[in-house]
């Protein structure tokens, strides 16, 4: 079964085809690629963009979306094996995924880490559980990576620069402050897609503790070896921003403190000055700024940065609709 769990699982040619199809969908929104088809959107966490864009996207292609929120409007689910299910969970993923697969043609899953034990969370067991038991393709709607966001960002950059060839562009993925320790998913994904596209990538973060998980650093290293890009880690704000073509911001919790956020908070609080502001953006090569959204203004980025014509975050958010339609159409076309 071909799923869309991570861009790293798909070839560059497959990703390019999806981006090309997304561009077509942006020109002409309606189609019949999902006519008579359905997608279950399973949300364990809140969403504005993902839910809306998948629901609208399925509609625009003639399909239907069913939203389920286990533990709220659907039964709580157990994901471990051999468990005596005498707690909250009313049913097991083995039945949930198989039953949904009898009703629908695609399943989307959003399941953030629990933020208690990274060794457990990095197994991505909710997404992997759906993928294991589902008889239909599964789409990652953000777990410990966010591949749909990657494609939306890639398309926004290709549109901005007027080319699908982004090699040689300097891409800065900058950590920013947030009052809470957040998921590393979008940071993992930004690093993955930027290196895949052959850009010269700088991961800017306050201290070595904020470097991302070795799996994603490893993907990035493998990607630059293949794509001809480059990868460096920096803790120096001004040199990282200098000459950047793209600044992508995200906040995330430091993995060594996973589950011990009280210990991380005073460290994180020292780096509020990582906010993306006009002074830093002036160091760039007239670079563009983006963020996956939602974004706390004047915490992660200033009003002036968000309201600048160099901010492409709204374009990126729009592109979620187009790329997800392309992913759904591709998976349906190739489904057995
Ligand atoms: N960027 C993103 O996934 O937005 P939502 O959390 O609103 O879906």
From TrEMBL:
Predominant location category: cytoplasm
Domain (Aspartate/ornithine carbamoyltransferase carbamoyl-P binding) ranges: 2-159
Binding site for N(2)-acetyl-L-ornithine: 142, 250, 293
Listed pathway(s): Amino-acid biosynthesis; L-arginine biosynthesis
Pfam families listed in its UniProt record: OTCace, OTCace_N
Domain Aspartate/ornithine carbamoyltransferase Asp/Orn-binding residues, every copy: 184-329
Molecular function terms, GO-annotated: amino acid binding; N-acetylornithine carbamoyltransferase activity; ornithine carbamoyltransferase activity
Function recorded in the entry: Catalyzes the transfer of the carbamoyl group from carbamoyl phosphate to the delta-amino group of N(2)-acetyl-L-ornithine to produce N(2)-acetyl-L-citrulline. This is a step in an alternative arginine biosynthesis pathway.
Record-given protein name: N-acetylornithine carbamoyltransferase
